[in-house]
Amino acid sequence: MTIGVAGAAIASDLKLTIVNPKNLHDPSPNGYSTAVIVPGGARVAYISGQGGQDGTGALSPDFAVQVKQAYANLGAALAGIGAAPDQVAKLTVFVVDHDMAKLGVLTESVKAMFGTALPAQTLVPVPKLAVDAMLFEVEAVVVLK
């Protein structure tokens, strides 16, 4: 569905502002930012949860492989809407049976995709996802230029 808004002003510089207040613990070593400010006049897109399915729909039983594939899928979804990783304002990740060993895998993957422009992020431990073999899912809120 495409919706047009008459008279909507679009800012020419839609750069996200990352905020990590000095009086809070620095979350960047863990692969996220405390807050991200979206500029006024921005259009926002929502990317549905991307799992670790490959192009054939197959899921590896390995958590790290699924995470890497899910972020590749997120990259493809971003490209499909004409966006890049630095336009992601917020991630929500869902992890089956989360533990601290998985946190290292997640941090490595998010830093590989986003570098130092780390989006705000929430990790939600869950007992199960939509497909039994899914171990990880990531959804995104994106600012479009």
CATH fold descriptor: 60s Ribosomal Protein L30, Chain: A
The CATH architecture term is 2-Layer Sandwich
* Secondary-structure element series: EEEHEHEE
Q: Fraction of residues in helices? A: 10-25%
User: What is the CA-CA span between the terminal residues?
Assistant: 19 Å
Q: Tell me the overall shape.
A: globular
CATH class: Alpha Beta
Mean pLDDT: 90
Tell me the Rg in angstroms.
Answer: 16 Å
Low-pLDDT parts are: 1-12
Q: How many domains, in number, for the residues?
A: 1
Portion in strands: 25-35%
Main structural class: alpha+beta
CATH superfamily: RutC-like
Question: Order of strands in the sheet with the most strands?
Answer: 3-6-4-5
Q: How many extended strands? A: 6
How many helices does DSSP assign?
A: 2
Report the sheet with the most strands, covering strand number, pairing sense and barrel closure.
4 strands, mixed
Secondary-structure map:
Layout: E1 17-19, E2 35-37, E3 43-51, H1 63-80, E4 88-96, H2 100-114, E5 120-126, E6 136-144
Helix pairs in contact: 1-2
Q: Which terms would index this structure?
A:
alpha+beta, 6 strands, disordered N terminus, 60s Ribosomal Protein L30, Chain: A, 145 residues, globular, two-stranded antiparallel ribbon
Structural summary, described in words:
The chain has 145 residues and is of the alpha+beta class. The protein has one domain: 60s Ribosomal Protein L30, Chain: A, CATH 3.30.1330. It has helices at residues 63-80, 100-114; strands at 17-19, 35-37, 43-51, 88-96, 120-126, 136-144. A four-stranded mixed β-sheet has the order 3-6-4-5. Strand 4 (88-96), helix 2 and strand 5 form a beta-alpha-beta unit. Helix 1 (63-80) packs parallel to helix 2. The protein is globular, with a radius of gyration of 16 Å.
